[in-house]
Design brief:
Blueprint: H1 11-16, H2 52-55, E1 66-83, E2 100-110, E3 115-122, E4 126-130, E5 143-158, E6 163-179, E7 184-203, E8 206-213, E9 216-224, E10 228-236, E11 239-247, E12 252-261, E13 268-273, E14 279-284, E15 290-300, E16 305-314, E17 332-342, E18 348-358, E19 362-367, E20 370-390
Antiparallel strand pairs: 1-2, 1-20, 2-3, 3-5, 4-5, 5-6, 6-7, 7-8, 7-9, 8-11, 9-10, 10-13, 11-12, 12-15, 13-14, 15-16, 16-17, 17-18, 18-20, 19-20
């Protein structure tokens, strides 16, 4: 278990893998840029570069030789509060969002005709909201930051021409900071999880992928107000994905995705004194399980160029009655465009863009003796670039 000073993880590394959540709550779907243009439809079935290590390790059997994929996605959400009868006084807090980078790196290699190995570095969860210190909801939230970095060695085995299986181990680190005008909580930990996947090749023109990433349980240790040692248990959710990819014609591909995330594992964050065992505070979430559905297509404009587009609906796990200023989340619609340039032996470059239309979240939260009542103007822009090459 780590201490607050992050002795075992360079702080710059965690900073590099921080990001504001663009999927429901504070989950990050942006684990590559190649899927961004399709709104991540077909994520567990496309398997056209090494980033399949994250979405479905069984997809590594579709790749030849040694493959490298590296990229970065910029996530730029906006959350601007509009007051409507709050009990405190102050300003509206400015824009609680802002741009953050979510980098990724994946490697895969075929060992035999049936066996492949892989490794990925990613950030499955991230949160960054911060208000002006004099805003009207300062007693409830000022800064909320969660960073994760995930190391994911994987193996895949091709059982036959129709079925491949994959398995991965996840070593994940988390660093969290929650502040308001009354207190400052900081803590971190590292823990283990796992992921599995299956890829069914129904025909040369159609694949179906199934994948699952386990939940990860942490015991955060750190301090309250820089002096009081604290402990808090938290379990980040597991996710299952069903994906389809189909070659419709010589130029057209279509893909779809259905995912389910068990956010019900995250009910509350109970902060306890490590010295006395007394409860120092509670952050309530009361999340529901949530699902996401996506559809996308790609058009091969030439031997080198491919155009992509997609749409997705991402249902929030946040109930209206439990929405907080820390995570002013609501269901969102993804509208995505992208492109790929294949240079042949020198690799492929993917570019992607998504606009997230977020239904304006309302908030009516009583906490720390104040009522925060109003709504948010919410939305997000996401841009990404990725380079993939095989040897």
């Amino acid at each position: 278990m780590n201490k607050l000073t992050l002795r075992t993880v360079p702080a710059l590394m965690l900073l590099a893998f921080s990001g504001m959540a663009s999927a429901a709550a504070f989950q990050l779907w942006e684990q590559n840029a190649s899927g961004l243009g399709n709104a991540y439809a077909g994520s567990a079935a496309v398997a056209d570069n090494a980033s399949t290590v994250f979405f479905n390790p069984a997809g590594m059997t579709q790749l030849t030789g040694f493959q490298l994929s590296a990229g970065v996605v910029g996530v730029g959400p906006s959350y601007e509060f509009r007051n409507d009868g709050s009990s405190a006084t102050g300003n509206n807090g400015g824009d609680a969002g802002g741009w953050h980078a979510v980098p990724n790196l994946y490697l895969s290699g075929r060992v035999t005709d049936r066996l492949s190995l892989g490794f990925g570095v990613s950030a499955p969860f991230g949160l960054a909201t911060e208000y002006d210190s004099g805003w009207i909801g300062r007693s409830q939230s000022i800064k909320s930051e969660i960073r994760t970095i995930n190391f994911n060695p994987s193996v895949a085995y091709r059982v036959n021409d129709k079925l491949s299986l994959g398995f991965g181990v996840n070593y994940q680190k988390i660093d969290a900071e929650l502040t308001n005008s009354l207190s400052r909580l900081k803590g971190d930990d590292s823990a283990w999880g796992w992921n599995v996947g299956a890829l069914f090749t129904l025909s040369p023109a159609m694949r179906v992928g199934l994948s699952y990433r386990s939940s990860i349980k942490y015991t955060l240790e750190g301090t309250m107000n820089g002096t009081i040692p604290l402990r808090a248990d938290v379990e980040l959710p597991d996710t299952a994905i069903l994906s389809v990819w189909q070659q419709v014609s010589d130029r057209w591909e279509a893909m779809g995705d259905l995912s389910y995330t068990r956010w019900g594992t995250l009910r509350s964050l109970n902060v306890v004194s490590r010295a006395s065992g007394a409860t120092l505070g509670t952050e309530s979430f009361n999340y529901d399980n949530a699902w996401r559905v996506a559809w996308g297509a790609a058009y091969k404009a030439s031997d080198a160029a491919k155009l992509k587009f997609g749409i997705a609906y991402d249902r929030t796990p946040v109930k209206d009655s439990d929405r907080s200023a820390r995570v002013p989340d609501n269901s969102r619609l993804w509208l995505s465009l992208g492109g790929q340039w294949n240079t042949g032996r020198y690799g492929k470059i993917d570019l992607g863009y998504s606009y997230l239309y977020v239904r304006d979240p309302d908030i009516n939260m009583n906490k720390n003796g104040t009522t925060l009542r109003g709504s948010y103007d919410a939305g997000a822009h996401i841009v990404g670039v990725q380079y993939s090459v095989g040897f």
